[in-house]
TrEMBL record:
Start and end residues of each HTH cro/C1-type domain: 3-46
Protein name (Swiss-Prot/TrEMBL): HTH-type transcriptional regulator MalR
SMART domains from the UniProt entry: HTH_LACI (SM00354)
Source organism, top-level taxon: Bacteria
Keyword Transcription regulation in record: yes
Length: 342
């Protein structure tokens, strides 16, 4: 079995330098890292992670807390894309990831305690944000480094990344209003999640700015699933006056909403325009292709892991990072101004 000493001798460096390369220590130059890693690869050397963790007190692993069970979360393309970003950052820093798979808050808290008290992870990423979250409160008590995806209600001394969801929703609604839509429905996620509440605030902000009144009968809250969007859209379509457009706060929900629109005999975008959030890969293959707000899910995941790992390594202080959004314009919105001027 190849040892660190053999790698060091071949590379012309000390064994401690090889150890620092393995842990991706920022004090080692990129040139040295590249040379040592090539030799490690050529000699088929694989570090003993368990042995290293006993000596260094680091596991080189971060835990991931999902908003609900992984079997549900992975049905939404948002989460795999975020995890892709987390995995890339973790790999860059020589870290592994470990998923928590609790289906209830009690199971998640038990899993969190197993990860932290069992010294299995150096830090934790929470993949969501909601007020009065018992998991966040438990994590604070455990005094383990963590970061969040989503703006915490109390952001003091918390690492987090997020979009400006108020501004993103405001911009999306403003886009619809400027294309002649005055009656705009909203399908939002559960309001106990900060992202849903923020996007609702952006929706209201645009309506207030343009002096439009909100009809709460066409503002529906549901789970971030295709079925949630389908059921919500059916309620909206049963309102006394059907909207000319609907903003959906998640692409998966939008696919369900578009199914309901077609079932009720309406055409997209001729009768009802649809704008959504997340810009998942399937959005461009919807019928018609779905206009969606790109929240840069990969960047959210990468940045959440990066700020956590830099904090663990003492390379940055606690803080936040806001990821930009932009609307990807496709074929699901009708410009009513053009029709009206013919």
């Amino acid at each position: 079995m190849v040892t660190i000493k053999e790698i060091a001798k071949k590379a012309g460096v000390s064994p401690s330098t090889v150890s620092r390369v393995i842990s991706n220590d920022s004090r080692i130059s990129d040139e040295t890292k590249k040379r040592v890693r090539k030799i490690m690869n050529d000699m088929d050397y694989h570090p003993n992670v368990m042995a290293r963790s006993l000596v260094s007190k680091y596991t080189n692993t971060i835990g991931i807390i999902m908003p609900y069970s992984t079997e549900k979360a992975f049905t939404n393309p948002f989460f795999p894309e975020v995890l892709r970003g987390i995995s890339k950052a973790a790999h860059d820093y020589g870290y592994f990831i470990l998923l928590s798979a609790g289906s209830t808050e009690e199971e998640q808290i038990a899993s969190l305690n197993a990860l932290v008290r069992g010294s299995r992870v150096d830090g934790v990423i929470i993949m969501y944000s909601k007020p009065d979250d018992p998991i966040l409160l438990e994590l604070k008590k455990l005094n383990k480094p963590f970061s969040m995806i989503g703006r915490p209600v109390d952001s003091d001394n918390i690492n987090y990344v997020d979009n400006d969801n108020v501004e993103a929703a405001y911009t999306a609604v403003k886009y619809l209003i400027n294309r002649g839509h005055k009656r705009i429905g909203l399908i939002k996620g559960a309001l106990h999640l900060t992202v849903s509440a923020d996007r609702y605030e952006g929706y209201k902000k645009a309506f207030n700015e343009y002096g439009l009144s909100i009809d709460e009968r066409i503002v529906i809250s549901n789970v971030f699933e295709q079925e949630g969007g389908y059921k919500s859209m059916k309620k909206i379509l049963e309102a006394p006056e059907v909207p000319t457009a609907v903003l959906v706060t998640d692409d998966l929900m939008a696919f369900g909403a578009m199914k309901a629109i077609r079932e009720y005999g309406y055409k997209i975008p001729d009768d009802i325009s649809v704008v959504s959030f997340n810009n998942v890969p399937l959005a461009e293959f919807a019928m018609p292709p779905l206009t969606s707000v790109d929240i840069n899910s990969y960047d959210l995941g990468f940045s959440a892991a990066e700020i956590l790992l830099k904090y663990i390594k003492g390379e940055r202080k606690i803080g936040k990072k806001i990821i930009k959004t932009n609307i990807i314009f496709r074929k699901s919105v009708r410009d009513r101004n053009i029709i009206e001027t013919l």
